[in-house]
Amino acid sequence: SMVYRGESLQAEIKTIYSSLEQRKL
């Protein structure tokens, strides 16, 4: 997440968020 800071950052947030949701379920 260095070159495309915006897009890659959004992708990382989506991945973390989805993983957190899976943990809750």
Short description:
This protein is mainly alpha-helical. The chain contains 1 helix and no strands. This is Phospholipase.
What does this entry look like structurally?
By secondary structure, the chain is an all-alpha fold. The chain has one domain (1-25). It has one helix and no strands.
**Total DSSP E strands:** 0
- Sheet bearing the most strands, described? none
SS element count, helices: 1
Q: List segments where confidence is low: pLDDT < 50 over at least 5 consecutive residues.
A: none
**Rg, Cα atoms, Å:** 10 Å
Bin the helical content: over 70%
Helix/strand class: mainly alpha
Cα separation of the termini = 28 Å
Element pattern in H and E: H
What key phrases describe this protein's structure?
single chain; 25 residues; mainly alpha; 80% helix; Phospholipase
Question: What is the fold's blueprint, element by element?
Answer:
Elements: H1 5-24
